[in-house]
Each structure stands twice: as C-alpha cells, then as structure tokens.
Design brief:
Subunit structure: Homodimer.
Order of helices and strands: HEEEHHHEHEHHEHEHEHEEHHHEEHEEEH
CATH architecture of the largest domain: 3-Layer(aba) Sandwich
Protein name: Acetylornithine aminotransferase
Family: Belongs to the class-III pyridoxal-phosphate-dependent aminotransferase family. ArgD subfamily.
InterPro entries: Ac/SucOrn_transaminase_bac, AcOrn/SuccOrn_fam, Aminotrans_3, Aminotrans_3_PPA_site, Class-III_PLP-dep_AT, PyrdxlP-dep_Trfase, PyrdxlP-dep_Trfase_major, PyrdxlP-dep_Trfase_small
EC number: 2.6.1.11
Distance between the termini: 47 Å
Amino acid sequence: MSNHFPVNRELFDDVMVPNYSPSAVIPVRGQGSRVWDQQEREFIDFAGGIAVNCLGHCHPALVSALKEQGEKIWHLSNVMTNEPALRLAKKLVDNTFAEKVYFANSGAESNEAALKLARRWALDNFGEDKSQIISFKQGFHGRTFFTVTVGGQAAYSDGFGPKPGDIVHVEYNNLAQLKEIISDKTCAVMMEPLQGEGGIVSPTEEFVKGVRELCDQHNALLIFDEVQTGVGRLGTLYAYEGLGVTPDILTTAKALGGGFPIGAMLTTTDIAKHLKIGTHGSTYGGNPLACAVAEAAFDTVNDPAVLNGVKEKEALYKAGLAKINEKYNVFKEVRGKGLLIGAVLTEEYQGKAKDFLTAAMAEGVMTLVAGANVVRFAPSLVIPNEDIEEGLARFERAVATVTNA
C-alpha cells in the first residue's frame, strides 16, 4: 500500500467533514508525556487527549495488553461474552459501589445508556408521569441528541430539530434552584462531580450532599457523569469517593481505556434489572480488545502510589502556575482537583484562552481550554515531575508571548 499524496493539514480540509478545526501540528509518535510531530518537533503533553491518556503514550502495560489480546481474539458479538470483559467488569464492581456493568464505546454512549435506564426504571416503578430529567447549566454529557440536550449548553443542541423532551437545567452549585424544580415527577438528576467542559468547577460539599438528599426525597436516581473525572483523574479511583456521596448510576469512559475507545455504565443490581434482554445494546460494547487494554489501564491506575502521586503532582502544577501568575498576573484563580486543573483568565484576558493554547503549542507544550476563559490541564496521571517542570517553563514563555502581544 503506497500513498501518492501528502498527508498534511491541507488534506484534512479536502477529505474531512468541517466540524473540527485541528492544529497544523500532526503528532506521529509519543512516549510517556512527550510527543513528536511530522517534523520531529517535540512537545510536552499537558492535554492527555482531553483527559484520556491517563498513562501517557505507549505505556508498556497497555502496549503489551494490546499486542497480547491482538494475537488472541478481537471481536465477538454480544451473543457471546468474553474473558477480558468479564475480568474488567469484576474489577469495576469490586472497586466501586456498583454491582452491575454495561459496556459501550464512549462517554456519550455510556451516558445515553444511563439516561435510558433511568427513564425505564421510573416507568417500570412509578408509571409514565415520572420522566423529568434535571441536569446543570454548562454541563457536558456527550454529543448524541439525548445526551447533548441533557448537557447544559443549548448552542450544542440547537439547530437539529425537535429535542428530546422533559429535560430541565438548573445552575450548578445552586441547591435552592434545584429544590424549587425537583419533584416526584423527576426520574433522575445527572451531574458531573466536577464540571469539566463548563470551566473546571468543583461542587461545594453542601451542594453535592444536598443533591443526593433531594434525589432520595423524591425517589429520583442520581447519575454521576464521571467520564472526565473517573479512573484516578482527581486522585481517587472515582470522584464520588472523594465527595462522600454515592450515585445510583455512574458513567466512565475517557481514561478507562487509556486511549483505546471504551465506556461503561455502572449501577446496582436492583436498578440494572430494568434493562432486560432486548432493551438496549451495542455492537462493539465490551469487545475483547478494548476490555483487555482497559483492564491493564485500570490495574495500573488503581494503585495507591499512582493515586497519591496525582495529589502530589496537583500541588506541583498549582505552585508552578501561582509562580507564573506572580510574574504575569493573567489568572484570576487556579481551580480544579487532582490532574484536572483550570487556570481562569483575568478580566483583561477574557475570551483569550485559545491564544494561550496556541502560544503554548508554539513553545512545545500541549494544553487545553475549558470554554473561552479557562486554560485546562489534564496530563497523564504518571507524568514525570521533570516533565511538569519543563512543560511549565515552556508554558511560562507562552504566557510571556501573549502578554507582550
């Protein structure tokens, strides 16, 4: 197979649907927290594929799981089960509140399953009046039509015709507002235990505990979307453990496969029984290749040394960003938890998060944004401390460029 055409950024515009506007940089290989592009330029990865590459690039445990399973069996239909799926499900159940697992391919699909399950559970137990879903403004739950409508940014769901109904949005961290709206007609409340795309916003203790209490009072299920916060990202295996609040349904994806597409919905036996045979499914969900890689990622992350390391690395980042800010005064605050960190821009730099991202790329460090006013960092959970230091030095040069512009 030979290619008689240049594989470059221009080719994207020729052959790809224009819903993305990717960087001109095309990475071709990675090792740990470093990435090299087509021109062999080196970058430090503070983006982690948007909180996906929890063990960096080409981690030996993941590479060996992929190779080993790749020589065995890749795919089976769900007419049969398979060993990697069973092993991974057992580990998820043994290490969380959950008793049952459903596998999908992505966060959106896991959320779709959670929402369908909540509706079915309410219908079976309480009848069709109990169908309201409450979620939060600026929340993000995926791009299927159901999940994007539950997500709290109307701009993402507008313009595709009639939306799924009986979905209401309230402000995150506003317990009084939730109290006003929730009722016995509410079947579920869906929330991120730390808002990711919405700007790296942590819940207050009063809020998250209050949400759980209100759900209990009104027989509504509490769904935690842990697609971005799960698998060690905040320094606990799942974020709910650090909050002292247990959801009824939890969704997980992104870091679950360490870079291989997989998602899962976790719940209790009592709730799970409402997805009986034929009510939901997924062709690839639970396929052996994905589950084998995810098992290796899960085993590697679910280790006290790695999880405690996340908290130590969080402190390094926050200290480093504070030091940069002393010099340049560009951040109003640095917030977030574990290795999901948001640097919020001051009034002077409102709307300019993308400028910082672009300048950072030019200096050889990959970052993210969370909205127009927040620079986001979601690196590998095992990023070496020297890579954090070097990456922050490059980021400081980027900040200098933006402030001098």
